[in-house]
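User: Run a structure prediction on this.
Assistant: Running it now.
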Amino acid sequence: MGQVCFDREVRKKNYQGQVGLLLLVITGVVVALIMSVASRSLSDTVLSRQQRESSAAFSVAETGVERALNSLGRGSLPGGNVSIQDSTGLVTGQFSVQPTTSYTLFVQEGDVAQLDLSTYVPTIQINWTKTSDPSEDINTCVEGSGTAPAAIEVTSITTSSAIHTYYNPIGCTPANGFTTNGTFGGAAYRTNVVYAVPAGTKTVRIRPIYSVATIAVSGVGLATQLYVIQSSAAGGDAQKSIQVTRGLDAPSSIFDYALFSGNTIVK
């Protein structure tokens, strides 16, 4: 009888120990789940905050660009760094506009790059077509859109005339009747031309033919050709910067084929 009671006590203690161990395991699992949910909730909160801050900083930086473009459109050049902020004041930034006398822009086939030569210079250097860029530096050389690297049409506009000059890219002479090829443009550009600007020129327009092209123009004594806008903003953990290059106001390329006269046009 005593042995039976002893066995019962042993089994009871073993059972209580197993229950205690099971409760401990369950408690551990519950605590781990709670910590995991809390950690995920905290991560989501931080991520949401960072996204809000990033969006707000980008919006303020964009506002700086828009204000700069608006000022340039009204003929006003902002001086120095101009402060900007959002409505809450938690995101702050600044923008600036830097005029430059050199010209570097990507130009679509058929569009034009326009230069201001109101301050006359006798020569300008024109580089075009970025080397090793497959969209510009095309390997084939057959006359036609997209089948050759860009040739260019350079139009010099005076008060009374328009003078057209055509250049093929170096190493490529499609059957187009253009008699002049440019020279090697160096590591960055495929083709270079030193263009002799006709006397009395007020404006030069450069049109890529056959392909898109990045066009870079420089010359001693040139007037302002581009405006570089730098806008940045920061708030919390977020920082955003935007750079925009704006060219001079210019008529669309379609107007190169229009005839204008201050008086009556006689057929």
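Residues 131 and 188 are 6 Å apart (CA to CA).
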